[in-house]
Amino acid sequence: MTLIEPFDRDPLQNIAGWLSIKPDLLYLVGNGDCIERSANLYSRILRSKGLDKITVTSKKANAYTIDDAVDFFVKIIKKYSPCVIDLFGGDELLITAAGIAYHTLKDEWEVSLQQVDVDLGQVISYDDDGTFVMGERISLTVKQSVALNGGVVTTEQSQPARNYAARDIDPIWNVLKSDTTNWNKKVSALNLIESRGGCNGDELEVFMKVNTFKNTLPNEAEILALFDNLIKDLSRCGAIRLYQNNAGVYRYRYKNQLMRHCLKKAGNTLEHKVFFEVREFAKSGKPFFNDCLMSVMLDWDGVVHNITGGPDVRDTRNEIDVMAMRGAIPLFISCKNGDIEEEELYKLHTVAHKIGGPFAKKILVATDYEPKRETTKLSFERRAADMGIVFEPDAARLDAEGWRSLFERAFDEN
What we know:
Blueprint: E1 2-6, H1 11-21, E2 25-30, H2 35-48, E3 55-60, H3 66-80, E4 83-86, H4 92-105, E5 111-117, E6 122-127, E7 130-134, H5 142-148, E8 152-157, H6 170-178, H7 183-196, E9 205-209, H8 220-237, E10 240-246, E11 249-254, H9 257-262, H10 268-280, E12 282-283, E13 286-287, E14 291-299, E15 317-326, E16 329-336, H11 343-356, E17 361-366, H12 374-386, E18 389-392, H13 400-410
Parallel strand pairs: 1-2, 1-4, 2-3, 4-5, 16-17, 17-18
Antiparallel strand pairs: 5-6, 6-7, 8-14, 9-11, 10-11, 12-13, 14-15, 15-16
Helix pairs in contact: 3-4, 6-8, 7-8
């Protein structure tokens, strides 16, 4: 069977129908100059999903009047029948012409129409008897979705989060929730003192004497107090085992690599919490998301000029804290502790649109968003809503049902 796909600028609209009904031949047609290049990209996506037996070909219609466009589709239908014409996307002229050609030939030739419901993730087929759902639910991984939109995932944080259960984050998350206002300061103090003490950031065991670097810290009394306070909190919750804390001598051991990594940067704990909640969320007994990654570094044009990973003026990159897939629709989540500038909304919106396309969903999660003026807060929330960004200003208050509701709101499912 052949699937005839009018070309659309949004790649998901071009590929969704193929992923669902898996035709023998995909015939991509349109008036643009980038059809052949896009066909090559879509072939790679299909191969990555094990659908390498689908032949992908493309043809420029060169049809700019309705009569020429109808004639173009009539010839294709007669040549490739039995065939299906997908109406999910494409130029209005070609879509209209495809419909006319279908009604002209449907009694003599084996041809049908279909459209993809991107939220349902399946194909709606049309014939004289009405409509019916057919095909498999379409899905993409994070990397496939990024590649589909011309980008590439250059790095991702896969360890240690994937080796732990969601509940393993609870001890350190509870410490953060107890004092969201000072969390950034405490973690910064911890990392500063551990670095001055000569501690390796990847080792679980820590031993240092504060006296060896005393009088070298900025705002030393405050830094030491924040550090000592956090160490005691971590000890009480079980994130570390404190062996010694007297006369400026500290010896402790992190419970595991997860606890260690969560404290390397102030934002890591929130990122991990969101990642675990995304990964564990199920609805009607089935996972809500089919893939998720955290600390995802995205290259916009899919070409990494500096393969060593260092900066290169030719590379445009952005990091997304957590990225997930529901079917073939990507979700971009930005996690922020403390103050948030309005610029963060624009960054999230721009990256999601460029790398995720028009169907992308966006969430901004914060733990301590308390602007000094109420008008600033209202303006920020309105701007987020205008950009289609679901904003959660106080993630520390969320229970399991709260996280569920947050994700469902992004997909308009609650």
